TrEMBL record:
VWFA domain span: 332-509
SUPFAM superfamilies for this protein: vWA-like (SSF53300)
UniProt name for this protein: VWFA domain-containing protein
InterPro entries cross-referenced by the UniProt entry: VWF_A (IPR002035), vWFA_dom_sf (IPR036465)
Transmembrane stretches, start-end: none
């Protein structure tokens, strides 16, 4: 889907060359105009993939491509575009982002306006909006204004009697490559301005005491409107709250922020500038919540006045602090790596590299093992091995010499084998990392098995983290399995990012400094629903 999207944009940019802007008016050079003939198709796809909120004219009839203000009387173009070409629209006026950061999440409200500059007057086309979101992004709402009408997104309850009808009406929206949401606005007239407000939430990354926010805000040159007198203004309002009344220490920022206010545990910033061209860099901001030692607490909130869910909510948080002498637990780690036929080539090689990089992060007192699987299982060792240089070197040889991709996918069998190997664990934290690119038919059986084992296995049961490769594996299943297994989940949609994201997942999931946390007050509640949120 992502590659098809990029191909449609590339064709749309080629069609946009038909547009006449007047004497001495030329659009900015695009990647389509400047890339070399030898450029890889994957590089081309990346260059046209949205890196900020974007709007595209959906063009099925090439003859409609025309400047709505200055006709150029181009020769008639026969045929249709199948699939439709996507012409990036020019962005006008003021682009605004309001960002609220608290604990480990950020809510982003983005507002912008695009002009349908490429469709002749009195003609109409659909407009597709693409919303790239940051880490674990989740769309919360959309508002659209076009001349003569406006619309907004609506949360639909599954119990609604008109559920299916409403879903069918809103069926134009879809996720593309995991973190980019696209939706379509039907029949917008050439020359009209489309105003969009999009709200989403995303995860703040946390590493070694530092929170990091990265919001897609890099606009390609071809969205800059043609003309010297068209004003462009960027405005970013950033509110940061530690949530716990602790001092915030700013570390870095990508844009020139001005401090508006400072309170204990809260800060406000503003970036407001007239620009010649739209931002070509993502917005990033990092900060520390200062504390020498580990600290935590519980926040309580009563339901809102008209909330249909009248239960009270609580947030239980723990910060590790800046005490560098605090050590993580000794670990016993088993890597379960998929070597089915679909992993052949780049996915398997990238997974091997990521696994070997993760092995290098183990401490000498840790132990490890590797289970490769397709429809069978293959063990590196019949027992857990100490993470010595010799053992890691031997594991490297085994991975490179013994493993080839072939056969189907059976996840339950190696999971049972890994759990059996870790059954006698004492005085350490057992951890399982599952790496796969596939989907299986027995997801429910796997989840039920793990849930049953962990329920009866005591406090030193293995923590299961999962890593998905590519777009075809069942990400929902892997996320659910990690949640049941008290672990973490991540994914890489292309082979090039597997190594980096695997190392990141391993570092996060294996840096355990607290375990067996209990909250006595929860034992007396009639009912309880917990949503996990982990660093």
């Amino acid at each position: 889907m992502a590659r098809e999207f990029a191909t449609c944009v590339e064709y749309g940019l080629s069609l946009s060359k038909r547009i006449y802007y007047g004497k001495e008016m030329t659009p900015a050079a695009t990647a389509a105009m400047t890339r070399s003939v030898s450029a890889k198709s994957s590089d081309v796809a990346e260059s046209y993939f949205p890196t900020a909120v974007m709007a595209y004219a959906v063009v099925s009839e090439p003859e409609l491509v025309e400047n709505p203000d200055v006709p150029s009387y181009q020769p008639y173009v026969h045929g249709r575009c199948e699939p439709p070409a996507l012409i990036p629209l020019h962005m006008h006026g003021v682009v605004t982002m309001e960002i609220d950061c608290c604990f480990d999440h950020a809510n982003i409200c983005f507002s912008g306006a695009w002009r349908v500059h490429c469709i002749k007057g009195n003609s109409k086309c659909d407009v597709r909006i693409a919303v790239p979101m940051g880490e674990q992004g989740s769309l919360l709402g959309v508002e659209v204004d076009v001349p003569g009408r406006s619309c907004h997104s609506q949360l639909i309850e599954a119990e609604d009697a008109n559920y299916k009808e409403k879903v069918s009406k809103g069926g134009n929206g879809r996720l593309m490559r995991g973190s980019v949401y696209t939706f379509k606005i039907p029949q917008v007239e050439g020359g009209a301005t489309v105003s969009i407000k999009v709200i989403w939430s995303q995860k703040l990354l946390y590493h070694e005491g530092q929170f990091s926010l990265n919001v897609p805000f890099s606009f390609p040159a071809f969205v800059n409107p043609v003309g010297k007198k068209i004003s462009k203004r960027e405005k970013i309002l950033l509110n940061v709250s530690s949530g716990v009344g602790k001092e915030i220490l700013c570390k870095s920022t990508s844009h020139a922020l001005k401090e508006l206010r400072r309170e204990v545990g809260k800060m406000g910033f503003l970036y407001d500038a007239e620009v010649l061209t739209w931002s070509s860099a993502d917005f990033s901001f990092s900060y520390n919540v200062y504390s020498k030692d580990l600290f935590g607490g519980v926040l309580l909130q009563s339901p809102l006045l008209r909330d249909i869910d009248d239960r009270q909510m609580f947030c239980f948080y723990l910060f590790p602090g800046n005490n560098q002498s605090m050590k993580a637990f000794r670990k016993e780690v088993i890597f379960i790596i998929d070597i089915s036929r679909s992993m052949k080539g780049g996915p398997l090689e990238s997974a091997k590299n990521g696994l070997l990089s993760s092995l290098q992060k183990l401490n000498p007192e840790d132990s490890f093992n590797i289970i490769a699987f397709n429809m069978e299982t293959y063990l590196f060792s019949s027992v857990m091995e100490q993470a010595t240089e010799e053992a890691i070197l031997e594991a490297t040889r085994w991975l490179n010499d013994k493993l080839t991709a072939d056969g189907g996918t059976n996840i339950l069998m190696p999971l049972k084998q890994a759990i059996k190997l870790l059954a006698e664990t004492t005085n350490s934290i057992p951890v399982i990392f599952l790496i796969t690119d596939g989907a299986v038919e027995d997801e429910r059986d796997i989840c039920n098995f793990v849930k049953g084992y962990l329920t009866s296995g005591g406090s030193i049961s293995p923590r299961i983290s999962t890593f998905g490769i590519g777009t075809y594996c069942n990400h929902h299943f892997l996320r659910m399995l990690a949640q049941i297994g008290r672990g973490h989940f991540d994914t890489a949609y292309d082979a090039d990012s597997v190594d980096f994201r695997m190392q990141k997942l391993f570092t996060t999931a294996s840096s355990i400094i607290l375990a067996d946390i209990t909250v006595d007050a929860l034992e007396h509640l009639d009912s309880l629903e917990v949503l996990n949120s982990r660093y």
